[in-house]
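User: I've been trying to design a sequence by hand for this structure and keep getting stuck. Would you show me what you'd pick, starting by listing the structure so we're on the same page?

Assistant: Good idea, let's start from the same input. This is the structure you sent:
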């Protein structure tokens, strides 16, 4: 064992190294311009209780930000700092804001920009700089040889939004065939994710992304189908244009495996990882209806921040579907004991309209599957066709067994009356039994810890241990 763990004195010295994102300076997120912008927004909406949501990496700057906002002496203004988020730091945490009865939220740092409908929100992004001359010189070497008819659509990480706005005209003058995307306003309908495009995107064009190779870049790239993607990462010492292929063979195999597991599943857990993104209730209902049309049980699960340990408690569920913001990448983790799918992957598994399609079109933004979305299809038509005739036999690529969708007519009126999802099945000898999703859990031999109040003999109170687990005070010192 390492000597760093031999005594409690060395534990404090053995700290994890500080990463680059932990070195965010105050000027990278806050200045006089942002201060005036926040104050004007507060006065415009006549807000009295404002919550400041900051990620952990810049939480130590909250004191100075609060002091500067309170120095404006706006009558009746109270400011609260949200130090812990319910799901992810990129999402607006309406749950924590509601605990403080806040009537507005100022969100700092990186954001997924998911539509929020119940509370006014102002975003304050990181304000990183770009080397303008180096960027233009790098783009010239690649894009000057392009055909004049080829369009270049430029996207960027939100932390470079301010820098791009300053050089927008310069880029357009230098590259006339370039279209620079804008962030959609709160009252605007986005074209792709949270982007507004001046002209429709051409699938045969070229995509330029300025930012890091992270989930934001992945979400943007996969939403553009078969375009050529170039990445320019300003955080590198000598940034260059990198040609990328987001649909890597290894990634595709993993996602197809998860889709096959979902098609084999007899029960699906719908994990709700957002309570503020607009449309999350509608997409939950959509997944439930698609699963019901295939005779699959669904369980609605809300457990806060999702991790493998929490989902491991639901051992009877075959796979999980994550309903969350586009920036939530935990569905790609290998730590879960059951497959965790995005909503779009569940759509491919449960919706017959996607049965023969490949992952050349993808989205992590579940509103794309809702009405007026890019990939919307009518669930009622799918359900009716499933009820009218059984699907032809399909062979599972995992188990090798044939799987069919059972011929079943659902009694919607009875389900609405009872308020639960129930099915009527034959029990034997012409008897009929009504079952619900909760029966799967009540039939377990072990159902968790029970209090048994008044049934157990009271235990004697004893003095517990004191100290830290590595060295309790009542333990002998190791030689």
């Amino acid at each position: 064992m390492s000597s760093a763990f031999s005594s409690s004195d060395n534990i404090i010295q053995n700290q994890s190294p500080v990463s680059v994102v932990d070195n965010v300076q105050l000027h990278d997120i806050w200045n006089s311009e942002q201060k005036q912008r926040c104050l004007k927004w507060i006065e415009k909406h006549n807000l009295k209780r404002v919550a400041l949501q900051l990620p952990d990496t810049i939480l130590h700057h909250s004191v100075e930000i609060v002091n500067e906002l309170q120095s404006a002496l706006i009558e009746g203004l109270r400011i609260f700092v949200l130090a812990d988020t319910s799901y992810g730091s990129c999402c607006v945490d309406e749950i924590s804001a509601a605990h403080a009865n806040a009537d507005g939220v100022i969100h700092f740092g990186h954001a997924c920009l998911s539509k929020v409908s119940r509370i006014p929100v102002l975003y304050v992004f990181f304000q990183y700089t770009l080397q303008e001359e180096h960027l233009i010189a790098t783009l010239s070497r690649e894009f000057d040889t392009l055909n004049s008819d080829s369009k270049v659509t430029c996207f960027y990480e939100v932390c470079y939004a301010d820098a791009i706005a300053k050089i927008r005209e310069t880029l357009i003058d230098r590259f006339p065939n370039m279209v620079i995307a804008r962030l959609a306003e709160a009252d605007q309908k986005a074209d792709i994710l949270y982007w507004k495009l001046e002209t429709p995107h051409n699938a045969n064009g070229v995509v330029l992304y300025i930012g890091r190779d992270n989930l934001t870049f992945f979400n943007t790239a996969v939403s553009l189908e078969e375009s050529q993607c170039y990445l320019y990462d300003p955080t590198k010492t000598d940034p260059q244009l990198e040609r990328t292929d987001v649909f890597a063979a290894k990634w595709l195999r993993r996602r197809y495996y998860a889709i096959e597991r979902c098609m084999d599943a007899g029960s699906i857990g719908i994990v709700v990882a957002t309570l503020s993104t607009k449309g999350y209730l509608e997409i939950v209902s959509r997944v439930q209806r698609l699963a019901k049309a295939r005779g699959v049980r669904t369980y609605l699960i809300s457990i806060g921040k999702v991790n493998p340990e929490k989902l491991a408690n639901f051992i009877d569920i075959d796979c999980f579907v994550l309903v969350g913001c586009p920036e939530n990448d935990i569905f790609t983790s290998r730590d879960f004991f059951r497959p965790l799918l995005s909503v779009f992957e569940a759509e491919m598994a449960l919706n017959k309209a996607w049965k023969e399609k490949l992952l050349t079109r993808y989205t992590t933004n579940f509103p794309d599957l809702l009405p007026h979305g890019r990939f919307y299809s009518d669930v009622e038509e799918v359900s009716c066709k499933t009820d009218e005739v059984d699907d032809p036999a399909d062979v599972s690529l995992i188990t090798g067994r044939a799987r069919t969708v059972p011929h079943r007519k659902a009694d919607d009126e009875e389900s609405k009356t009872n308020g639960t999802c129930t099915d009527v099945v034959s029990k034997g000898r012409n008897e009929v039994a009504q079952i619900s999703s909760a029966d799967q859990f009540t039939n377990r031999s072990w159902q968790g810890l029970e209090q048994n109040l008044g049934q157990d003999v009271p235990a004697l109170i004893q003095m517990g241990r004191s100290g830290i687990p590595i060295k309790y005070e009542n333990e002998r010192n190791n030689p």
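That's my pick for every position. To get oriented when you compare it with your attempt: The first helix runs from residue 9 to 13. The longest strand covers residues 422-428.
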